[in-house]
Amino acid sequence: MTTDFAKLEPEFHQAYNELKSSLESSKLFQLQPDLRAALPVVSIPERVIQFRVVWEDDKGELQVNRGYRVQFNSALGPYKGGLRFHPSVNLSILKFLGFEQIFKNALTGLSMGGGKGGSDFDPKGKSDNEIRRFCYAFMRELSRHIGAFTDVPAGDIGVGGREVGYLFGAYKSYRNTWEGVITGKGGSWGGSLIRPEATGFGLVYYVSHMIKYASGGKESFEGKRVAISGSGNVAQYAALKCIELKAKVVSLSDSKGALIAKDADKGFTEEDVALIAKLKLDRQYLNQLYDAEDSFQSRFTYLPGARPWSNVGKVDVALPSATQNEVSEQEAKDLIAAGCKFIAEGSNMGSTQEAIDVYEADRVARKGDGIWYGPAKAANCGGVAVSGLEMAQNSQRVSWTSEQVDQELASIMERCFWDCLNTAKEYYDVAEGELPSLVNGANVSGYIKVARAMHDHGDWWANSKQ
């Protein structure tokens, strides 16, 4: 991992260095020194596919975009990870997302490898026909490299139900086969109930266990003030689950600004979230809703160009659910000063490394009174977990009830929490009264699962003289 590559791929190297730091600060390589040999192997994708996507806009003019699929690791199952359509998409971002996905998927306990893909195409401002033509052009090449037992993509930023439908239809047309090759499908053609809700719901289930453990079973979400960033799928369903559990959601945001509740004891309602969901379906921004709704102006403050973290006042729980690196070092300090006790990421790599260092230092210094951090690869794995359950339903040609899927999701998140917690206790020295490091536990646990499977497959081997 040279400095030059680190400059070219900053997001990927941030994710790599976080994992490497956790592994090297643990007892893992002392107790199992042979596992060190897997690190340079797992850090290079098995395959990177790059291609051009040529499509025609509504004016009949030729357009061209870049398409990607990073097939990072298949030790535990078919490559699994979303497709992102956004102008910011580049190889560094997709490598970081794919790398994180390896260990996130491992933590679910399901048979899924890790991958990620997408394009620098921007669906915003495009007609349905333009999006359909782009999806068919994109899948023309991608269909050569994916399949139910090879690589199963899903949606991500810019790829919702509409795009998944077009991509699935294109694959079916090109390959002349109906198979569960993409997850997030419509309910009448192979999709799973609870899939849209899964990441947000799973995030809240994970934090519920954090709260219960830290309080010795005395506390829950009830009455907690919860700051959430983002207003897309993850943020919406996290907010709804928090409201259901009688917490007070005090913020939501998008790329143009943040809405902050004026009265933190009231916050957002289910009706507010429904209005925001409709707004986002129409690809509009929160400031447009704020300007149009008197009730929003009376109950919320809109801060253009701002994120919630330094502006929410007293808060108990923070759930970054927008994009990568959305909590800075200073914002982490501001959250701690505001009384935040729990922070868990609904977005991938939602905190900068400097912010994570602040969380972890506070956890060690103030022990049970410090902030406790749940990393994305554990806290937001509910989405891909239900994607795995969708794959299982497709294989069986059955559809499970909402209750079945939700129960499975809750069980997976509970197992993931205890896996992270117990691994941290096993491979790190935890002082009396200190909460174990969930980020270190997640990194070590995910790495062990993947490294051992790779070893069994002959992907790496240890020097017998070590």
TrEMBL record:
Superkingdom: Eukaryota
GO molecular function: glutamate dehydrogenase (NADP+) activity; nucleotide binding
The keyword NADP is annotated on this UniProt entry: yes
Segments passing through the bilayer: none
Catalytic function, reaction form: L-glutamate + NADP(+) + H2O = 2-oxoglutarate + NH4(+) + NADPH + H(+)
Binding site residues for substrate: K80, Q101, K104, G155, S387
Pfam families per record: ELFV_dehydrog (PF00208), ELFV_dehydrog_N (PF02812)
Annotated PROSITE patterns: GLFV_DEHYDROGENASE (PS00074)
Active-site annotation: K116 (proton donor)
Subunit structure: Homohexamer.
Listed name of the protein: Glutamate dehydrogenase
InterPro entries xrefs: Aminoacid_DH-like_N_sf, Glu/Leu/Phe/Val/Trp_DH, Glu/Leu/Phe/Val/Trp_DH_C, Glu/Leu/Phe/Val/Trp_DH_dimer, Glu/Leu/Phe/Val_DH_AS, Glu_DH, Glu_Leu_Phe_Val_DH, NAD(P)-bd_dom_sf
GO biological process: one example: glutamate biosynthetic process
Domain called Glutamate/phenylalanine/leucine/valine/L-tryptophan dehydrogenase C-terminal: residue spans: 192-458
Assigned protein family: Belongs to the Glu/Leu/Phe/Val dehydrogenases family.
Alphabetically ordered keywords of this record: NAD, NADP, Nucleotide-binding, Oxidoreductase
Site (Important for catalysis): D156
Record has RNA-binding as a keyword: no
Stored SMART domains: ELFV_dehydrog (SM00839)
Gene Ontology cellular-component terms listed: cytosol
Binding annotation for NAD(+): T199, N233
